[in-house]
C-alpha cells in the first residue's frame, strides 16, 4: 500500500499557521486535531480554523474528531472543508450512524481507537470505513512518547483487513518520528501522523520526505 504522511498542525505555530501548512504541502494529508475538553482533557480548534485553512490550502484535510457526540458535528466539519473525518469508537455516538452521516456528506469515514481499546472493537466497521486510526499515545496532547505496546494492535488490524480483502488505510498518531516510523510500518500502518517531529524540525518539508522513505522501506516486514 502507499505510504502517506499526515503532518499534525497541533504542533505548528498557530501565529503562522498558513505558512507552516505551506511548508508541508508535499505531504499526502494534513492532520487536524479537534478537541472539546470533554472527550479529551484539552481544547484545540473548531470549524472556523478549518474553514479559514481551506481557503488557503488545497491539501487533503484529515480531520480527527476527539470529541463527544461526533454525530452532531459531522455536518459542520464536512461543510467547512474536511475531506476525511475520523471519530472515536468510544465517543458515545452510534458508529453506524456517524459513518452514514459522513458518507452522506460525500466524505471518507474513519474510526479510531484509544490505547486501552482493543482492536476488536472496530472489527464490525472495517468494511464501512476507509481508514482506522490507532492512537499510539493517549489522545489529548501533542509531544507524548510513543507506546510500543500498540504495535500488536496495528498488526492485528492489518491482518484482519487482509482476511476480509479490504484495501484499508491504517493510520497511527502519537510519537511518530524517524525511529518509530519504521516500527509502525513494519506492523502494517501506512498512514503516519507526525507533529513535533515535522514542525519541530529545521526543515518540515524534508522531514516529511524522510518519514515517508523510512516507513516505505519497512512496510509490512513484520507480517
TrEMBL record:
The lineage of its organism: Bacteria, Bacillati, Bacillota, Clostridia, Eubacteriales. Substrate binds at residues 8, 64, 140-143, 173-175, 195-196. This is Ribulose-phosphate 3-epimerase. GO terms for molecular function: D-ribulose-phosphate 3-epimerase activity. NCBIfam families: PRK05581.1-4, rpe. Binds 1 divalent metal cation per subunit. It comes from the Bacteria. It comes from Solibaculum intestinale. Pathway: Carbohydrate degradation. Keywords: Carbohydrate metabolism, Isomerase, Metal-binding. Catalyzes the reversible epimerization of D-ribulose 5-phosphate to D-xylulose 5-phosphate. Its cofactor is a divalent metal cation; Mn(2+); Co(2+); Fe(2+). The active site is at residues 33, 173. It catalyses: D-ribulose 5-phosphate = D-xylulose 5-phosphate.
